[in-house]
Design brief:
single chain, 345 residues, alpha/beta, Rossmann fold, 2 domains, eight-stranded mixed sheet, four-stranded antiparallel sheet, 13 helices, 12 strands, disordered C terminus, binds adenosine-5'-triphosphate, binds magnesium ion
Length: 345
């Protein structure tokens, strides 16, 4: 069976006075039903832009999009990049749904929680307001909001941050989407609530057998929930593999740097946290060569000035493990485990 979502060579750019901002370049990945793909990378790496393209949420007058994002629906495949806007609008909130970092920007302050979930449901279902409120109450119950029958009549400001995020999840799931894109859904929450929300997402995924894309800059979150990971840097996927491969056998200098910047329980004694020095390059008129080279500690191991002149392709360097780097997998594994970066005591 084909994966539910197949993204192929997706490019998204924004024309500006200074030139085109190449926010997503040649993005290809798949997500199957029941699977969680995490997308990680620092701020500005193109995580949101590529997923907003899949949801059809860019302004077509100000965005140049090419490539494909195919939803393999029961009724047949639909490429949401080329499909008419009306088709994509009808799939949004039904076959595919998205939740955002800040629930207050997605919830209307003047309508009750129940009305908002009910409206989302009634867009795709026959039923009056009372049926809608009944469905909303069921959904609030499902996402663990206590006393749902009463709280369904309350307003967003009466809910805590974690509860609002639960409401967002309820609203996203009300029409049983097959694809759920969660864009930094727990960033604004404290750690305890964060892990409750992640647990809820996992439970909901099981319950509805969804394909889930989880966007985050937190590799700790990734370890908790993802099956596979795309690491993004400066608009490109630089590494793509199963979560364990990424954690224990990363073949990408940028990912290795990211991993060194998070606390790991398996390395508490011998590991000092690091940050990656420097900044990502501008996405306007990217220079030739590898986008990460100016920050890469391993560039000196590559012969000649290959890193400065040739952009590495995304290649399969181990089974089902793709990476962009001019070094061989043997060199990368060696560097990954060595003391080269001086991070160990
Ligand atoms: N409408 C737009 N016009 C011009 N540039 C844009 C537009 N939207 C996004 N960008 C740029 O595209 C790049 C990628 O942005 P994106 O929002 O995808 O980053 P991100 O990886 O989601 O970061 P964060 O972790 O901060 O959410 C950034 O440089 C951003 O400034
Ligand atoms: Mg973002």
């Amino acid at each position: 069976m084909k994966p539910f979502l197949e993204v192929k060579n997706l490019n998204v750019s924004f024309p500006t006075e200074d030139g085109n901002v190449n926010a997503s370049q040649d993005i290809s990945f798949e997500v199957a039903l029941g699977e969680t793909l995490a997308i990680v990378g620092e701020s500005g790496s193109g995580k949101s832009v590529s997923n907003l393209a899949i949801m059809g949420l860019h302004n077509p007058a100000r965005t140049i999009i090419s490539g494909q994002a195919i939803l393999n629906l029961e009724s047949g495949p639909v490429d949401v990049i080329t499909a008419p806007a009306e088709t994509v609008r009808r799939l949004r909130g039904k076959a595919m749904a998205m939740i955002f970092q800040d629930p207050m920007s997605s919830l209307h302050p003047y309508y009750s929680i129940g009305d908002q979930i009910s409206e989302a449901w009634r867009l795709y279902n026959e039923g009056n307001k009372k049926d809608g409120l009944k469905k909303a109450t069921e959904m609030l119950d499902l996402v663990g909001i206590p006393d749902a029958g009463r709280r369904v009549n309350e307003y967003p400001h009466q809910f805590s941050g974690g509860m609002r995020q639960r409401v967002m999840i309820a609203m996203a799931l009300v029409n049983n989407p097959q694809l759920l894109i969660a864009d930094e859904p727990t960033t604004a929450l404290d750690v305890t609530v964060q892990s409750q929300i992640l647990q809820l997402l996992r439970d909901m995924q099981k319950e509805f057998n969804m394909a889930v894309i989880l966007i985050t800059h937190d590799l700790g979150v990734v370890a908790e929930v993802a099956d596979r990971v795309n690491v993004m840097y400066a608009g490109k996927i630089v590494e793509q593999a199963k979560v364990d491969e990424i954690y224990y056998r990363s073949l990408q200098p940028y990912t290795m740097g990211l991993l060194q910047s998070i606390p790991r329980v398996d390395q508490l004694d011998s590991h000092r946290l690091k940050t990656i020095p420097g900044q990502p390059p501008s996405l306007i008129g990217l220079p030739a060569g590898c986008s990460f080279r100016a920050r890469c500690e391993f560039a000196s191991h590559v012969p000649g000035n290959l890193c400065a002149t040739v952009a590495p392709a995304l290649e399969e360097k181990a089974p089902a493990h793709l990476t962009r780097c001019h070094l061989t997998s043997a060199q990368l594994l060696e560097l990954n485990t060595s003391d080269v970066r001086g991070s160990h005591n």
